[in-house]
Design a protein that fits this description.
The complex is a heterodimer of chains A (about 375) and B (about 290). By secondary structure, chain A is of the alpha+beta class. Chain A contains 12 helices and 18 strands. Chain A has helices at about 5-15, 30-40, 65-75, 135-140, 155-165, 170-185, 235-245, 265-275, 290-305, 325-335, 355-360, 375-385; strands at about 20-25, 45, 60-65, 80, 90, 95-100, 105-115, 120-125, 145-150, 190-200, 205-210, 210-215, 245-250, 255-260, 280-285, 310-315, 345-350, 365-370. In chain A, strands 7, 8, 9, 10, 11 and 12 form a 6-stranded antiparallel β-sheet that branches. In chain A, strand 7 (about 105-115) and strand 8 (about 120-125) form a beta hairpin. The radius of gyration of chain A is 25 Å and the shape is elongated. Chain B is of the alpha/beta class and about 290 residues long. Chain B has 2 domains: about 1-125, NAD(P)-binding Rossmann-like Domain (Rossmann fold, 3-Layer(aba) Sandwich); about 140-290, Succinyl-CoA synthetase domains (Rossmann fold), CATH 3.40.50.261. Chain B has a 7-stranded mixed β-sheet with strand order 3-4-2-1-5-6-7, sandwiched between helices. In chain B, helix 3 packs parallel to helix 4 (about 100-110) and helix 7 (about 215-225) packs parallel to helix 8 (about 260-270). The radius of gyration of chain B is 18 Å and the shape is globular. The chains are: A alpha+beta (about 375), B alpha/beta (about 290).
Chain lengths: ~375, ~290
């Protein structure tokens, strides 16, 4: 779960990190009016979407005057921002954040995550930072330094300061900010906290100019405040509805609806379809705890989408979700749909596969059954075409 | 022979009285594995499924001689259950619970450091030595004893590939679900080391996917050693849109986790036989076994 930028900054400010003064606005007029409260020489207008890569996509603009803030906000609001992380559909900008532009003496990079090997907090830092930093880091991973803090070391100032110095951030007051970041990271069940740029201002103080925070949705049971974030994840209404029904659903651009049980088999199916020249309409992974009702919901979401010309059902019935349960759900959704003609290409294997196929046929689902994945995928791609 | 669990393994179930705990403990027993007791605070002294119940893991171990535990408790309690089993020095702890918070797993990893426990999971289908011991939630219908060791990040693909292998006459020594979460216990490298030392295992299949570093670490390990047995890998997610999380733990742009293509390249450089699709794995195993 990603936090919107302004929320990330509000949260970090509670832990003593310095952030630029800013105001949210949902209209160009409000954005212009916000400038009055900021009392700055120069402004930044930032699109609030739940995906990275904004800067390069035109979602961060500097503005010298309140009227140019108005213009930039007017241009961004309501538009779709397509970044390297949004997919080609892009994300609609509903809110902008207007900030006082800062006078930066130096830009660095700081990130915290959990080390998968030891479970310790992994600190990442770089003497470089700012726009296009990720591209530079991808080209040359040497510019990012990392260290892992063991259980007793999360407030070890000397260790943190020495690490920052090794990354070219040689300043005792930066270490204080990092300790605040560590506390925020731990207490809020973050899986990622990225501050870029982590900037030194001309007055020598440190500031989080931009911040990206990912929270662990699995920890929502002890964070009631996470509930209100669901609406801000940049998910389509379809994706949100799927989530409520134990289904991982990602909207893609093609015409072939895909139903699979298990994330791994889902990724494999996606690979098969694209290798065969097809275009999936979605990625769907029925969670192991899903009931036939949940599955029916997933199928219903696909049938409702008129771009979906055929459905590929690729299921390996296992210890938890068996084929007849899946088939019941599929049949239920078809029977209630007004698009009963959409062909269903089924490859059922594993526990109760034959029974599942029989259910689909008996309930008049327009099904073609296959014994292996490759022939099923070939047929499904044939029906839906490449583009 | 097999790795980690066999017909001598004595299993207790933490959370046995729950709906899922009851179901999968029963299945495990029907498969012929030795389940010897259950743990549920407050239920000590009673019986469930004909097995004695205990208040805690330590007393269950003392009374039954258990050396393995199936943790099947709700996510908020999973970390405490795993840590309890680790502290009681249970040799193999299998956690099938999904959605364990990552910061909880950080505490589990700290408890695991320096212990002798092999933790399988969480978010794992479990571990299966065909014909001998099942600890987990996987189907067993298509499993057959044999010489292929499987270590996998995906439950659904394990079922698929296991069925294909059995159909091709390739039985399995042991299948290990390392789990779909970013922070987990036993990984590919540890599985590879165990399979290497297992006389029965003739070839090892790694089932990987985008995200995380399991495949990279396996490639590093295999590059630096004369492994002596063929290793076959399938890494799925070659066509997943970048930056979007699909199912399991996705990649962090700054922290890495390579693309499927990059993982495949590293594994291939380390001498691993790469299968492109799930249905190619069994044939690749046969080919690799013929070639060594």
């Amino acid at each position: 779960m990603l936090l919107a930028e302004y929320k990330s900054k509000e949260l970090l400010a509670q832990y003593g990190l310095k952030v630029p003064p800013g105001r949210r606005a949902t209209s160009a007029d409000a954005a212009e009016a916000a400038c009055e409260k900021l009392n700055a020489k120069k402004y930044v207008v930032k699109a609030q979407i739940a995906a990275g890569g904004r800067g390069l996509a035109g979602g961060i603009k500097f503005a010298a005057t309140p009227s140019s803030v108005h213009d930039e906000a007017a241009r961004m609001l309501g538009s779709k921002l397509v970044t390297e992380q949004t997919g080609s559909a892009g994300e609609t900008v509903n809110t902008v954040y207007v900030e006082a532009a800062q006078d930066l003496a130096a830009q660095h990079f700081l990130a915290l995550t959990l080390d998968p090997e030891t479970g310790g907090i992994m600190l990442l830092a770089s003497s470089q930072g700012g726009v296009e930093f990720e591209q530079r880091a991808r080209m040359d991973s040497e510019i990012v330094k990392t260290t892992v803090l063991g259980p007793g070391e999360t407030s070890d100032n000397a260790k943190i300061a020495a690490f920052l110095a090794s990354a070219g951030i040689d300043d005792a007051s930066a270490a204080d900010q990092v300790r605040g970041a560590i506390q925020a990271f731990t207490e809020n069940d973050m899986t990622l906290l990225e501050i870029n740029p982590f900037a030194k201002l001309s007055d020598g103080s440190w500031m989080a100019i931009d911040a990206k925070i990912a929270l662990d949705p699995s920890a929502a049971f002890r964070h009631p405040e996470f509930a209100e974030l669901d609406a801000e994840q940049g998910l389509t209404s379809v994706e949100m509805e799927a989530q409520k029904n134990n289904i991982n659903f990602v909207k893609l651009d093609g015409a072939l609806g895909v139903i699979v049980n298990g994330a791994g088999l889902g990724l494999a199916t996606n690979d098969l379809i694209i290798d065969a020249g097809g275009r999936p309409a979605n990625f769907m992974d029925i969670r192991t705890t899903a009931t036939s009702f949940d599955i029916a919901k997933g199928v219903e979401l696909l049938l409702r989408d008129t771009r979906v010309k055929a459905i590929l059902l690729n299921v390996h019935g296992g210890g938890m979700t068996v084929c007849d349960t899946v088939a019941e759900g599929v049949a239920f959704a078809y029977n209630r749909s007004d698009r009963k003609e959409v062909p269903c290409i089924a490859r059922l294997a594993g526990v109760n596969a034959e029974w599942g196929n029989q259910i689909l046929k008996d309930r008049k689902v327009p099904v073609e059954t296959f014994g292996d994945m490759q022939s099923a995928v070939t047929r499904a791609v044939e029906l839906t075409g490449g583009a | 022979m097999a790795i980690l669990v066999d017909s001598n393994t004595k299993v207790i179930v933490q959370g046995m009285t729950g709906r899922a705990g009851t179901f999968y403990a029963d299945q495990g027993m029907r498969y012929g594995s030795q389940y010897v007791g259950g743990v549920r605070p407050g239920r000590g002294g009673t019986t469930h499924l004909g097995l004695p119940m205990f208040h805690d893991v330590k007393s269950a171990k003392a009374e039954t001689g258990a050396n393995a535990s199936l943790v099947i408790v709700p996510a908020p309690n999973a970390a405490a259950a795993m840590i309890e089993a680790i502290e009681a020095e249970i040799g193999v702890v299998v956690c099938v619970t999904e959605r364990v918070p990552q910061h909880d797993m950080a505490r589990v990893k700290a408890a695991l450091a320096g212990s002798n426990t092999h933790l399988i999971g969480p978010n794992s289908q479990g571990i299966l030595t065909p014909g001998q011991c099942k600890i987990g939630v996987m189907p067993t219908k298509d499993a057959k004893p044999g010489g292929v060791g499987i270590a996998s990040r995906s439950a659904s693909l394990t079922s698929e590939i296991l069925a294909n292998c059995s159909a091709a006459g390739l039985g399995q020594s042991t299948t290990v679900g390392v789990g779909g979460d970013a922070l987990h216990g036993t990984g590919f490298v540890e599985c590879l080391k165990l399979f290497r030392d297992d006389a029965e295992t003739e070839a090892v299949v790694l089932i990987g996917e985008i995200g995380g570093r399991e495949e990279e670490r396996a490639a590093e390990y295999l590059s630096g050693t004369d492994y002596g047995k063929p290793v076959i890998a399938l890494v799925v997610g070659r066509h997943s849109p970048e930056g979007r999380r699909m199912g399991h733990a996705g990649t962090l742009s700054a922290v890495g986790g390579l693309s499927a293509a990059e993982k495949n390249a590293k594994l291939r450089d380390a001498g691993v036989h790469i299968a492109t699709h799930p249905q190619d794995v069994a044939a690749t195993v046969l080919e690799a076994k013929g070639g060594i």
